[in-house]
Amino acid sequence: MSQQQYPQQQPGWSGPQQPGYGAPPPFQPQPPKKSNAGKVIGFGCLGVVAVVIVIGIVSAVVGSGGGSTVTDKPQAKASTGAGAGGSQKKATEEPAAKKPDVAEVGDTITVKGMEDGSRLDVTVVKVADPAKSSDEFMTPDAGKRYVGVQFRLVNTGTAVYSDSPSNGAQVADTQGQQFQSTFADITAGPSMSADVKLKPGAKALGWIVFEVPKGSKAATVQFTMDSGFADQTGEWKLP
Asked: Which spans does this entry mark as compositional bias, Pro residues (predicted)?
């Protein structure tokens, strides 16, 4: 009786194995891992936005804090209106410049000279129009008359005043014609000296005479220090 032959097993070979009996399971691909890069980028963007917001809030707080405002422009003054429904002037509108009052006989005007501390209070005291010559041999030219203006000068400065006041005085008529002073004595009173020297606080009084056409109406008289070369001029309206 023949014996059944079995194939001989090779060393190290254990034969076919069924799954579940110690054999490793078949290879299965693993799902890809989720990357955290998107989260990192997202959190980074949110961080930047948050920093910008915080900076904006801090700037707003600093700008409005303390109650004081720094500006490089002058602030306009608010004008008072007639009410909520009334019209108001613009805050930036400048007020209209006031016209200087016209000085008249009896008024005093302060004028300055070219030298530091040179200042006079000048007053037109009286006017004689027409004025009569006190010297029968000295009379106005034909067709003209004398107009006398009495000035009082007070040195209110700190420098000594030394000048001939008549050199800085002149009369103008209604047509704008100007007339310089002339050397003449009138019956109204003593003439102003041709060489006046006044220390601070001192005063001088005298008449200055002008020769004006008989047909002209004397309208104003002017006085300027430094024989008419100073910058400030006083002007009075004549009656």
From this structure: 22-32
